[in-house]
Amino acid sequence: MLEKQLVFLVDGARDLNNMIYNMFGKLNIKIILDWYHLEKKCLEQLSMARKGSKIRNEFMDKLRPALWFGKVDEAINLLQTLQPEKVSRSKTLGKTG
Q1: Residues 6+ apart with CB under 8 A from 95
Q2: CB atoms closer than 10 angstroms to residue 49
Q3: DSSP code at position 87
């Protein structure tokens, strides 16, 4: 028999995530960041790390399909291919919040 899972599609607000975990944490749950906020967050982080919007947008065009189809490993691999000479603040990448 398949185990039921509650899936929450949210905007990434920490207080909302905390509330979901507090209310349903003992159940089989999955929290998924909605597409709008995932793309927005990626663009913000890339803007802080990339030298120029043209380079950021070109990279995002490569990253977007992996994000859309939920190919996490592919997205991580793409991020690891960032050329250091095109990164203005490498410490920015990977930080959240």
Answers
A1: 45
A2: 21
A3: B
Please give the model's pTM, rounded to 2 decimal places. Answer: 0.71
At 23, list the tokens. 């209310």
Q: Can you list the positions of beta strands (E) in 11-85? A: 29-33
Question: What is the torsional sign of CA 43, 45, 48, 50?
Answer: negative
What does the alpha-carbon distance between residue 22 and residue 16 come to, in Å, rounded to a whole number? 10
Residue written as tokens 């960032």? 82
The Cα-based distances of 26 to 5, 6, 17, 20 in angstroms read 11, 11, 14, 10
pLDDT, tens digit only, all 97 positions of the chain: 678 999 999 998 999 999 999 999 899 999 999 999 999 999 998 888 777 788 888 899 999 999 999 899 999 999 888 877 767 655 555 555 5
In this structure, are residues 31 and 20 in contact, taking their beta carbons and an 8 Å threshold? yes
Judged by DSSP in three states, 29 sits in: strand
